[in-house]
Amino acid sequence: MAETIGSTARRLAAALLRIGAVAFSPEKPYTWASGLRSPIYCDNRVTMAYPPIRRAITEGFAEIIAREGLAPEAVVGTATAGIPHAAWLAERLELPMAYVRSKPKAHGRGNRVEGRLEAGANVVVVEDLVSTGMSSVAVVEALRAAGVRVEAVLAIFSYGLPAARAAFDRAAVPLHTLTGFAALLDVARETGALAPGAVASLEAWRRDPEAWSKAHALEPIT
User: Fold this and answer.
1) 17-44 b/e with 16+ CB inside 10 Å = b?
2) Which residues does 114 contact at the CB level (< 8 Å), separation at least 6?
3) Which of 126, 128, 134, 222 could form an SS bridge with 44, CB 3.0 to 4.6 Å?
4) The pTM is what?
5) Helix (H, G, I), strand (E, B) or coil at 219
6) How much is the average pLDDT of 178-190?
7) Strands 113-114 and 97-100: what pairing?
8) DSSP helix/strand/coil, 84
9) 29 contacts 41 by C-beta, under 8 angstroms
């Protein structure tokens, strides 16, 4: 899952910056659900408001499926941010679509997998963002428990953290992303969206996010 900085990755990174889907705050780090402090926050839900960008994401996913020789029989979204992109991709490919809840429904049938997936079906999972990879892998495991074969996880953006690489390796499922941290940092640097000091802080975080997080533990939280 090494990130390569191609023209598609750069264009999408530039688009995410342009619409404000990405925010940088090295001096006042964000706190992820995992507790990790981060100088960057990516909210790909913002892309729903921009038809040209969401179409580009859909086409990018379709191109990955064709390039990698994948043959999904359904598209599965992660709740909640992966759901709309899974729906658009399923429509583009004329395939069934389902989604996986973060935990089983508290009433009714108590489903975790919503929709209709045939046992043994090949699927691709659509994720908006990959940080540590744990939530994506949990979706893969839920689908496998339901008797479904996961060909790959497709994500709009990945921070490219070693923890995510290890998580996907352990789960033995490939991850394909449209853009990521390296492309974003390149574009931000070139466009002047970041001062040199901020670039250095982001690069330090990328090298060792846990150490950076501990060093900034007393910083204000946004």
Assistant:
1) beeebbebbbeebbeeeeebbbbbbbbb
2) 98, 99, 100, 101, 105
3) 128
4) 0.91
5) coil
6) 92
7) antiparallel
8) helix
9) no
